[in-house]
Adenylosuccinate synthetase
Amino acid sequence: MSVTVVLGSQWGDEGKGKLVDILAASVDLCARCAGGNNAGHTIVVKDKGVKKTYAFHLLPSGLVNPACTGLIGSGLVVHIPSFFKELDALQEQGLDCTGRLFISDRAHLVFDFHQIVDGLKEVELGGSSIGTTKKGIGPAYSGKASRSGLRVHHLFDHENFAQKFRKLVEGRFKRYGHFEYDTEGEIVRYKQLAERLRPYVVDSVVFIHNAIASNKKVLVEGANALMLDLDFGTYPYVTSSSTTIGGVCTGLGIPPKLIGEVIGVVKAYTTRVGGGPFPTEQLDDIGVHLQEVGHEYGTTTGRRRRCGWLDLVVLKHSCLINGYDSLNLTKLDILDQLADIKIAVQYKVDGKELPGFPADLEVLSKVEVVYEILPGWKSSIENITSYSDLPDNCKKYINFIESFTKVPVKWIGVGPGRESMIMKS
Ligand code: 2SA
Ligand code: GDP
Ligand code: MG
């Protein structure tokens, strides 16, 4: 039995959550492997004819399916108050997750002081700030890498936890000066939170391997995306986790041989939220059109997302690293009104083609982007349900992506709702 994986292929917000929700209808377990509540996955469903929108940040989106169990793997960094806030919000929307949500005892903890430090670091960076979500992700992963972090299991040895926690806060005061923080109050709060968290905590290695051994269908939901990966993204304008296929193995403790289908989610254009390079960004009417028609606002922070043309140099880089078996092209409907559609196919520096996506941002700043221009279809595809009914120019756009990447497009998103997904055989 193998594990299916859904990963973001660009700078995030490709629409991973929607595909995960659709696939979750036929899986038993949906697991997150990396990141934290910086992620934002929006799911739009019709419940007895009424439209419902769910926003997931830390919890796996597969939970919308009431028969699906959710697992927060060891590769995540978890802010426990936010975990409960999200859980309570889902409960209020009528989604009961009782008994079907679990969290790894090895997951690292994000505290409020990490979030404060996240903000202070951004201020220090000034004009070259990363544009983080300020959820404390970078500082928590830094603590993990420097081997001083606290993990979920530490919550259950209160004295030891309190001692280590005080030391961590002191360290931050030394580095950033004394900021307002109720250390002792936090220690008391976490004693209570630990008791509330206890029923959710599992050894996630045993948990996921038991599920696989008993032939349960497992789906992994990637968070953030390839170009935000700590190693292969536009460093340092990245998040602090492994957002690639490698992060699936390290964040869940599963070997590569158990990985089955890997699906790359590709937005039909490109967006990025936060700072950092974006070669196909359009700072003109086209960018505004994509932003407005595509409702491109951060699901977690509400920030405006930067917009531009589809970049196949990025997608190729992404395909090489993640080895997608198939692609889900999303938000194709957002291109409906355009007369011409550009696709980036090559980067050149001083007239010479680059062999791949450059590591050095200095080089990246000098690239000349080479575009192909394809004719638009100038009609609404929102209500189309079968591939054969798509306009010819729309099919040409899809075929262009397939022949460039040599990866088949299996799903095509034509609207935000669950039903707006065309299966291409
Ligand atoms: P962080 O907070 O340390 O992970 O930020 C580092 C960079 O990673 C970017 N990042 C994201 N990019 C796209 N979507 C994300 N999730 C939210 C969403 C974002 C939001 O779904 O819209 O609401 O703003 C996400 N999370 C992190 C971030 O912008 C930095 O560039
Ligand atoms: P994720 O982070 O990759 O899960 O993506 P987000 O949920 O942050 O952002 C994607 C947004 O696009 C959400 O608001 C989705 O409801 C919406 N969406 C997903 N697929 C489609 C699509 O095919 N068409 C349209 N119009 N919207 C879509
Ligand atoms: Mg998102």
The pocket of guanosine-5'-diphosphate (ligand 2) is lined by residues 8, 12-18, 40-42, 44, 299, 330-331, 333-334, 413-416, 420 (CB under 6 Å). The mean pLDDT is 97. The chain is about 30% helix and 20% strand. The radius of gyration is 22 Å.
